[in-house]
Amino acid sequence: MLPYADAAYNLARWLTRNDHDAEDVMQEAMLRAYKFYPGLRGEARPWLLAIVRNACWTWLEKNRPGELAIAEEPEADTPGPDVLLARELDRRALNEAIATLPVPFRETLILRELEDLSYKQIAQIAEVPIGTVMSRLARARRMLAEKLSPTTAAPRLRLHK
Amino acid sequence: MKPDDKTLNAYLDGELDAPASLELERELAQNPALRASYERMRQLSAAVREKAEYYPSPTHHKLAPAERKRWIWLAPAFAFVLIVGFGLGVFLAQPTEEELLGNEMIASHVRATLSGRLIDVASSDQHTVKPWLSARLPFSPMVADLSQEGYTLAGARLDYIGAQAVATLVYHRRQHVIDVFVWPTPSEAPKSAYARDGFNVEHFARNGMRYWIVSDLNRNELDDFTQLLASR
Questions:
Q1: DSSP character for B175?
Q2: What is the ipTM of this complex?
Q3: What CA–CA distance (Å, rounded) separates B31 from A3?
């Protein structure tokens, strides 16, 4: 059994957003991991995640190039609108909101929140400067907050109250 | 100065250095709006950690599963080739029945030469040798007189080759000894020859008799001798 297989699969699954394509990516990632394994220095988990991440991007470039385009926005200074308390957030809505984040933001959020990696590790995996990790994470959380905000996401729910 | 969104995020993630953290904490203490923002951010982060799906690997991924798979079906094939190859090697390395017989006769020839017990009945007369053999064996071998051709009959002895009693005719050619082993066989066989340990071995079967000729004589002369024997 491959160590960190779950972490690897989770990332592939979040970036491709379905099991079938995630398996596809995993096959390719495992080949690469096997090939580059002798060159592994340092921690295995970020190393493996970097391989999976690259395999995902290669796959997305080939199959869904539209998803990789980043619409750069001027940085907002506000942390985003109100969100419900964690325990009140609907699980399905939250997962859908994450899934609709653009890939670069989604991967940053997943690596930070689900893998608990440091900015430095995420920067190495995503091959971007740490500053970019910071701004992507800030923007990912802001976008998520906007999608989940009761005022923007579910205005009709309020009408029924 | 109002801390920006990134700083707040970095503080939440524990990525802010100590002086910046202290400064932000002072700011948070004084600024309720900032505190509320931070609290929302913290709640959202906690919600993601708590409620976002974590997809465990549904299959047992191994390093390079595709390669492993290829090896998996290659393994029995490889094993098969190995076994067949080994079996074939053993089979080919196995001396044939003829080789085993030949070895026995070479051994007999060498033993007889070493001990000097080459001959039980010493006679150059075929009419003495043939009855002597017939009286001691369940068959009567042909005893050819080849003295005209330069192969003098020296006599004969009894031997035990291939689990049966055989007649061994002894001829001389100059200083060389030629042993001719004879026993009955139902089949015919063409002349064949090989060399081993410096001895030339030839054999053929005709007229219900099998002949093995073993000598340290050179191949050409032994060929002649065998030819003569076979033509009688």
A1: T
A2: 0.85
A3: 46
